[in-house]
Every structure is written in structure tokens, then in C-alpha cells.
Amino acid sequence: MTGLSIENLSMRFELPNGDHVQALQNVSLDLKAGELLSVLGPSGCGKTTLLNIVAGFLAPTSGKLVLNGHEIKGPDAERGMVFQQGALFEWMSVRENVGFGPSMKGTPKAEKNKTVNHLLDVVGLQDFKEKAVYELSGGMQQRVALARCLANDPDVILMDEPLGALDALTREKMQSLVLKLWKETGKTIILITHSVEEALLLGERLIVMAPRPGRIHKEYRLPFADLGVNADLREVKKHPDFGPRREEILNMIWDMEEEIMGGKEDAA
Amino acid sequence: MIPLLIYVAIFIAAFFIVTKVVQGAGIGDYTSLKTVTFGDESAVRPNRAAGIISILTIFLMWGVFTGSNLLPGFLHAPGPFEGTTTFTYTAEADGQTDDATVTVVVHPREVETEAPEVDPGDGFAKNDSAAIAQWRSGLIRVDRNDELGRDAGATVVAINGEAIAPGDTVAVEGGAVTLSDRGTPNFEPTKGWQMEPLYLPAPEAVWIRSIEVVSAGFRNFTLLEHLGYSLFRVIAGFLIGALVGIPLGYAMGLSDWFRGWFDPIVEFMRPVPPLALIPLVIIWAGIGEAGKIILLFLAALWIMAIAARSGVSGVKISKVHAAYSLGASKWQIMRHVIIPNSLPEIFTGARVAMGVCWGTVVAAELVAAEQGAGMMIMTASKFQNTDIVIMGIILIGVIGFGIDMLMRWAERLLVPWKGKG
């Protein structure tokens, strides 16, 4: 079978002071190939832990992850990751960054150059390919990160707040780009974000996670991503369902945040 | 005190002339509002004019207070008295007094001068003469040629008609006369405000001596050989230190066993100043090249190991994760992520290490060496060749500065991504 299946995933961190944190408890999720899942939740709900486990950077305490029929054990090029910021290699040019994956695999030069050039065209950075990455703006750097991830042709793309550090305008442009790339490449994407709007706009499916212990609180199937693929995202936001959904989810997260703050006050 | 006041005056005058008059008032940007610049060195850029004037001022002051030929005479600080002066003394013996004249020739130290012949004159006190070098003083046994000398009970009671007792001083033309405890006049020529060449030679004297040392050499080695030996030791010690220290630092950054094993050693050795190791190194390896290179190796080793260690452990985990998820193997991550990421730190360490090595080699040569910049100035100081000492200090400073500039340049060229991560 194709797709990603997460079964009864739990993650428990032992703290040096003898305490422990239940970052994830019995999280189960099935993701079909080509789905775009956005993950929302208050701070500390285990979103990033979930992503790191899927990426293979963390081994779960218990549970099983199966991708395309084989179990996930450690990081692999089949699961690419796009970080918020600062994960580009500043000692390499834009072209070298994008070509990093193919270079590591030993892809022949001609083929690698073709892939890199194609992706630079897609993300609109052809003119900047010989620049150092630190000479680019934040939005351009995230385009490089996207292109670098795609150059490896992964089955699943994991995005950890990739647009979190960008200004509103750049962010909107990048959201369109992510949707476009998703449709064109048909990749499975898991997107973690703090922005409810972004989660609604980009997520074909959306899960809201709750903290202490980290678990899936609610799941939605949304029409907005499909609507937004070739449309102005601002038009999508005018959809009659968009506003109410946003309010509903915002309230949900707001309540959870309040609960956390209250809990902290009790502890203190 | 006076030089300091003049220096401050030049500083203030230059400030007002350059900033208010020449560079013009009214070109106000907001840099002047940055009164607090802690942690932001770049907020204030050095004023180029101030830098140039500062260097010129140092040479000007040097010239003024050494009577340099490079400066027109009116700029010189008052120099020491030179020439012939006279004073009279009054001797008293058996109730009678007599005056006699003392002629003193004050001459530069390097010019041998005989006391002039003088007419003895009349009376029981005879005229005297003496030759005294500048910046020195001399007892003048005025009674030696007198008919009634000290042994006959004659005493000097006045200089130039001014009464004087042992221990008193009377100012005379071109100097001052002090009566010693035993009643002999001691003439001290006026020193002026200039420095004696023994303490501070004029700039041109240093320059002339430098050329001499370049062509003729000093202590069996030419100047270039002295400096070359020092540089060779620094480079050899630094390279061996880097060659051992960098892999050691990498191992410490990557393996907890290495970290645990070497941390106590490195952390103990790091605060030990390399200068403190000189005696032990001399005991173990003697004063030859081996000892020097071992010392510099030890000076560079810990700095390079710590720089490499922090370069490795400073890598952002997201970069390593990104490389893993792009399919890189452990070795590829080492080669393409960890090493390039640590290079800026290593360069910073190398700059520090080169500076420390240069300082250490000079100190080691001061202690014991056959040749080298430090040995040159130490030996010169023993023979009071102050000009060579000053030349040596200037060259050591220039070379140290040059090394740092070279390292900065290499850093810009080789690790342009420094601080951009």
C-alpha cells in the first residue's frame, strides 16, 4: 500500500530531574499518497516531535510508522524536510544547496544539473543560482529550501513552520507556491504551522492537536486547498465556510492555551 | 608630564580642527546619537583623519623630544646645554678669600673632549677647567691646583658670589653647581627637556641603525635572518599545533569519550600561559629550535583544539537533520556540513593562536636563543643599544600586525560565510 500510516505512536521524554514529558500519546493517523495534511496546535502539543519522528530524527517510545509498506527507521531521502530557517548550508551557493541531495546520492552531473535548473525555474531563482544563500532575502531562502527538498524527489515532504519567519506578503506568495508545487508534484505533505489561516488554506486535511499529553484533538477535511490551487488565496478566504472554520479552530486552540496557562498557575 | 600635556593638547586641537573646521559642521547623520555602542563595534567607524594624525603625532613627539634632524629646529624641545660656560668660586683659607674662574666645556657624549687649557690667574685660588658630557655631571676638584688646597683647610664658600654650604645648589649659566659633602663643586649641565639618546634615540638614529643591521647584521645574523628564524618558529609551531589540535577538537566535538578524556587536559592547559612553560621546555628540549617549536606547538594546540571543538558542537542541529533527510551519510555530513560549518571558528582560533605564538616566540627568545627578534632586542639592551631595541620592538609590532591582517584577509577569502549562518 502507498501512503503513510502512523499507529499508536507514543513519545515520552525523560527529563534530567527525574520528571518526564508525555509529548505524544497513542497518535494514529493514515495519510494517503498525495495528501496535504496541516497540523495545528498550541505550543507544546507535540507537533514538532511528531514531525521529527516521521522524519526519523527521533525514535518513538512505542508505536509503528509505515511508509509505502516499510517501517520507518531513521532519516532517509524518501522523507524530505523543510525547516523554518537556518537549515540552508551557507557555505554553498544556491545551486549547490539545491543540488545537495543528488550530489550525496552520486547522481551523474548532467542529470543533477538538469534537475537543479528545472527546480530553480520552478521556484523562480534561476537568476540567483550562483549567489551565496546568505545574500538572499528570507522568502528566497525558503524557496531554496523547498527546491533543495524537491531535488531529492522525496515521497513525503515534512514542513516545520516553513513560512513562520516571513512577512505577510511574502508568506502569501509562498503559500501559493506550496499549493502549486503540491499539485504539480503530487507529493504527500505534512505541514506544521502556527497560523490557522495557513493551515486552512493549505491543508486538504487538518488536524488540531492538544497538549499534555500530545494527542489528536480534532480532524477536518477541507475544500480550500483545492480551491486555492490556481486561484487568488485572498478570494479563497472569502469563501462562506472559511471565516466560521477559522473562528472555530481559533477558539479551540485559545481554550487549550488558557488551560495550559491555568495549569501553570496551579503548579506555581 | 610636559609631553603628556602636549600630547593631550594636540589631541584636542586636532579634534576641533578636523571635525569642526575641515570636515565641516552640519553634515549631521545620526551616528552622533549612538552614545551607547556596547556590543556593536561597527556602530562607530574610526575616523581616518584621526588615525593618520595619531601616527604622525607619535613621530612628531618622538622627534620633538629627541631633537630629531627630521624636524626644523624651532620644533625641538629645549635641548641639553652644549658649549663652554664659566663660573667663579670663592675659596677661603686662613681668613683670607680669593676668587677663581672655572671653565667648563659641555660636550656631546660621543665626542671625546679634553678640558681646555686656562690661565691660572693670580691669588691662592687658581683658575680651573673641566670637560663634562651632556646629561652627566662631574666633580671639579677646584682646590687641586690651588696654593691652599682642601688639605690646607681651604673651603669653597661661594659660587658666582653666592654663599654656598655643602649640600647647597647654585644655578650658574648652563647648569647648576652643587657643593658635595666634602666641599667639592659638582657641576651638572642643564639637561633640557629632551630625552637622552641612551634612553630614546632620535627616529633617524633608529632608522640609520636599522639599515646598518639590515646590511651588516647583528650578532652573526642579518636582520632578515633574525626575523626569519622567529617567523619560522611561529609557523612551524602553529602548523604542528593546528595539525594536532584540529583533529583533536573534532574528536572532542563528535565523541563523548574523547570529550571526557581530553576535556580535563585541555581545560587545565588552556589557562596556563605559554610563557610559564618556557623553563620546563628549556629543561626538556634545550634552547635550540626543538624547544621553541615545542613551546609554540603547546601554545597553539589548546587554542586550536578548543576552536575546532566549539566549531563542531556549534553546528545547528537543523542543518545536520536537513543533510540526513537529503540522504547524506555520516561521512558526507562530516565532510559537507560539519567541517565547513566549523571553519569560521577554526579561523578565529587560528588568528588568536598566531597572535599568541608570535608573542610567545619573542618571549622565549628573550630568555634564551642564538638568534631571533627577541634575542636581538635582549642582547642589544645588554649593550645599551637602545636604537636596536626600539627598532626590534617596532618590527615585532609590525610583523604581529601583518600576521593578523594576513589571517583576516585569508578569512574573508576562504570563509566568506562567517557569521552568516
Automatic annotation (TrEMBL), chain A:
<dbReference type="InterPro" id="IPR003439">
    <property type="entry name" value="ABC_transporter-like_ATP-bd"/>
</dbReference>
<keyword id="KW-1278">Translocase</keyword>
<keyword id="KW-1003">Cell membrane</keyword>
<dbReference type="InterPro" id="IPR050166">
    <property type="entry name" value="ABC_transporter_ATP-bind"/>
</dbReference>
<keyword id="KW-0472">Membrane</keyword>
<dbReference type="InterPro" id="IPR003593">
    <property type="entry name" value="AAA+_ATPase"/>
</dbReference>
<comment type="similarity">
    <text>Belongs to the ABC transporter superfamily.</text>
</comment>
<feature type="domain" description="ABC transporter">
    <location>
        <begin position="4"/>
        <end position="236"/>
    </location>
</feature>
<keyword id="KW-0997">Cell inner membrane</keyword>
<dbReference type="InterPro" id="IPR017871">
    <property type="entry name" value="ABC_transporter-like_CS"/>
</dbReference>
<keyword id="KW-0067">ATP-binding</keyword>
<keyword id="KW-0813">Transport</keyword>
<dbReference type="Pfam" id="PF00005">
    <property type="entry name" value="ABC_tran"/>
</dbReference>
<keyword id="KW-0547">Nucleotide-binding</keyword>
<protein>
    <submittedName>
        <fullName>ABC transporter ATP-binding protein</fullName>
    </submittedName>
</protein>
<dbReference type="InterPro" id="IPR027417">
    <property type="entry name" value="P-loop_NTPase"/>
</dbReference>
<dbReference type="GO" id="GO:0005524">
    <property type="term" value="F:ATP binding"/>
</dbReference>
TrEMBL record, chain B:
<comment type="similarity">
    <text>Belongs to the binding-protein-dependent transport system permease family.</text>
</comment>
<feature type="domain" description="ABC transmembrane type-1">
    <location>
        <begin position="227"/>
        <end position="407"/>
    </location>
</feature>
<keyword id="KW-0812">Transmembrane</keyword>
<dbReference type="Pfam" id="PF00528">
    <property type="entry name" value="BPD_transp_1"/>
</dbReference>
<feature type="transmembrane region" description="Helical">
    <location>
        <begin position="294"/>
        <end position="312"/>
    </location>
</feature>
<feature type="transmembrane region" description="Helical">
    <location>
        <begin position="231"/>
        <end position="251"/>
    </location>
</feature>
<keyword id="KW-0813">Transport</keyword>
<keyword id="KW-0472">Membrane</keyword>
<protein>
    <submittedName>
        <fullName>ABC transporter permease</fullName>
    </submittedName>
</protein>
<feature type="transmembrane region" description="Helical">
    <location>
        <begin position="388"/>
        <end position="410"/>
    </location>
</feature>
<keyword id="KW-1133">Transmembrane helix</keyword>
<keyword id="KW-1003">Cell membrane</keyword>
<feature type="transmembrane region" description="Helical">
    <location>
        <begin position="48"/>
        <end position="65"/>
    </location>
</feature>
<dbReference type="InterPro" id="IPR000515">
    <property type="entry name" value="MetI-like"/>
</dbReference>
<feature type="transmembrane region" description="Helical">
    <location>
        <begin position="271"/>
        <end position="287"/>
    </location>
</feature>
<feature type="transmembrane region" description="Helical">
    <location>
        <begin position="346"/>
        <end position="367"/>
    </location>
</feature>
<dbReference type="InterPro" id="IPR035906">
    <property type="entry name" value="MetI-like_sf"/>
</dbReference>
